Amino acid sequence: MTAQDPGAGPAPATGQSPETGTGPEAGSGTGPQAAPAPRRRGRPSRTAEESGPGARARILEAARDQFAERGYDKASVRGIARAAGVDPALVHHYFGSKDEVFAAAVEVSFEPATVVPAIVSGPRDGIGERLARFFIGVWENPASRAPLLAIVRSALTHEAAAAVLRTFVLRRLLERIAAELDVPDPKFRAELAASHMIGIAILRYVIRVEPLASADPEAIVAQVAPTLQRYLTES
Amino acid sequence: MTAQDPGAGPAPATGQSPETGTGPEAGSGTGPQAAPAPRRRGRPSRTAEESGPGARARILEAARDQFAERGYDKASVRGIARAAGVDPALVHHYFGSKDEVFAAAVEVSFEPATVVPAIVSGPRDGIGERLARFFIGVWENPASRAPLLAIVRSALTHEAAAAVLRTFVLRRLLERIAAELDVPDPKFRAELAASHMIGIAILRYVIRVEPLASADPEAIVAQVAPTLQRYLTES
């Protein structure tokens, strides 16, 4: 049912190299499997266990949990570091600011670098269905749903979190999709598609209005896929 | 551009009689223009100015402002009464609990008793466009947008507010629409339509992702109307 299972076990590598920029160009053009080449910053950490490749995944997992449990406002780099068992300097070293940890924690759920190609590269007439099924799959998985709910809640109540969603996550995700589309106003179209999926998530998982809250995910996909298909492929 | 202007001047009467039930049957079957027949409850108020027909509209307007400014959690019947210049007992008298004041304050923006018939009673092939234009119109109007944003924020962060939205507002609004539809699963279809409009509101007015945030409202209506039309009329 789910297109992926990003929440089970340690957070998977997202294929994103650590990024420190905040402008619109940050992240675009990053190779999907570019190896991180961390610059030394802050205090060096002491052991390989603390600073090795496993540490980055542990930090991301801890960040997801912290943002989910505490919300954007109350989560802190210090608390994330403590939960991951690393020095706060290592969090800064891998991700930069709290905003950037937040963006990376969101992207663990969506893995845009690998998921977007999979959605857009199949037969063009199935793009709406693939996108709908992927999105519902991410939300149906409780492990990815909790941090996503936290993100949506934070973005609606804190401008800083809204800015992260706007600047990093949506831009990267939607621009990747839009770049593959052959319609007028592709970003506008991709945003309309995203708006529908976000609205469904809110009514189904947060407000829990019936019958949508209990509907078979496939019944939702069946209705929504033609909508996304039209937005993404029909002029 | 806007289908109505609910925020200018005193809040219009919504045609809803005060309701005290919280079960699923609350509100269904209420006549659209049933005159309120308030039961005496709490302290009687002292003057005609304080308790006359203008008081109910003033309370609703104050409630909208209080919920918009303070959020669901921090708004109180006492604070609403103070802002409206009435005794808190009069708020209870007209509306019952804080939840019910909240529901009534939301409904001032949507006026389901008058708006839903106007949307569903015109030519069937224009229902998607009328619904899209109405919804965008309500959100484009800053006077109705502020309390709606507060409601969405509150519903996403407080289960009590989510329950009000689920139990009162969405049920009344969507059941009225669904009752007029001639498709399978009309409530499910109405909820899918609502989810799209809510998602657009969030991306456009809260997250403010571009180009959606700056798009001409008519460009949104042009894209979204066929989606709503399909959900509401095509089996």
Automatic annotation (TrEMBL), chains A, B:
The segment(s) forming the HTH tetR-type domain are 53-113
InterPro entries the record matches = Homeodomain-like_sf, HTH-type_TetR-like_transc_reg, HTH_TetR, Tet_transcr_reg_TetR-rel_C_sf, TetR_C_16
- Output one GO MF annotation: transcription cis-regulatory region binding
Stored Pfam families: TetR_C_16, TetR_N
Q: Where is this region: Disordered?
A: 1-56
Instruction: Specify whether Protein biosynthesis is a keyword of the entry.
Output: no
UniProt DNA-binding residue ranges? 76-95
DNA-binding found in the keyword field: yes
Which superkingdom does the taxonomy of this entry point to? Bacteria
Q: Which UniProt keywords apply?
A: DNA-binding
**What is this protein's record name?**
TetR family transcriptional regulator
